[in-house]
């Protein structure tokens, strides 16, 4: 056992005798990954992708390429997660590769911006579509968003048994719903006027790049498997299998649903649509189709919110293990097998962000701007940590090694760097707020370093 591993265990023991237990099966892990990735994006981004491509084949190629890039990233994370199977996920990788100061800043960013902003973003989408079914007044979307966060946080506080059972059922319902949309689009929807190509773009390279930004945003979330590595049974095999199975299922569903969109609406119809899934089902089934898609989006977003709540609290727990001022967060409740205080703080911050989104009157876009640059910055650092740790920790036993090293990790780092650039270019004032909030964590980093010196 290495010194850093022994130190990690001693820190855990000092804070609390209870610790995460391996209680997630392979199917549970796959359900979490699928639930994290398939949110509202697949009902919105295909229209943007179609508008930035020149043919139906280019649309499908973009979604297949997105799956390939995600699988490359998953192979990189599989090596990290099987080599360092701790509850903190990227927090632990960054600590080992770049030092604890960067790791603490990441945990702060994840707690205050990345994960909580993602929860609020998904909750707003859930609220928007739930309001189409039953409106609750002027602030209907925000009320539904707050209720979703509060109820799912409470469920996770009851224990992993309840949250993973709900996650499995929500994921099954999401997949069945998507399959229903695919079947309707491929068989029931009347064929549109034949138009296989879109007007040529004067800047084809830029157009293709814009399409890939939204494709990869729709694939985002699979990396959260790293945060449950310590809780997966037989993690040496099941982390890799869960990532590959999860992304494989997602890629197949994404390609098939885009085939359905193209079959029912055509390339031009997709590109001009404001709500591509709703337009497809309305064309096939009339207004009842719009109700059906609203129900499906609510289920998909609840699926993603629950999975994001589940994984988000793990980094907050790891932060509490290492930093004295956050020690109250590093408590693991043994009986329900949950990081209870981490769940409570995460829920409170997410609810506060719902309030911020309500004030700005544009909750979804505000949360996208708030989270995107910070997410891609630390995602890039986490990917680079694989390269650094291969050099710094060469004797470590690695149950899984990414193939074609270092080519695949370098390709994935390049993709992360491009998305970081794109998120900085296309986001608004919400990004500035996110950066300021992350900067507020710097005093905690400085204070912790001073404590270590003393």
UniProtKB/TrEMBL annotation:
**An example Gene Ontology cellular component term from the record?**
membrane
> Which ranges does the record mark as transmembrane?
29-50, 62-81, 102-124, 136-157, 169-188, 208-230, 242-262, 290-310, 342-360, 372-391, 403-421, 427-447
| Top-rank taxon | Bacteria
Task: Alphabetically list the UniProt keywords.
Answer: Membrane, Transmembrane, Transmembrane helix
Pfam families per record: AA_permease_2
Tell me the leader sequence span: none
The UniProt record lists the keyword Membrane: yes
Protein name (record): Amino acid transporter
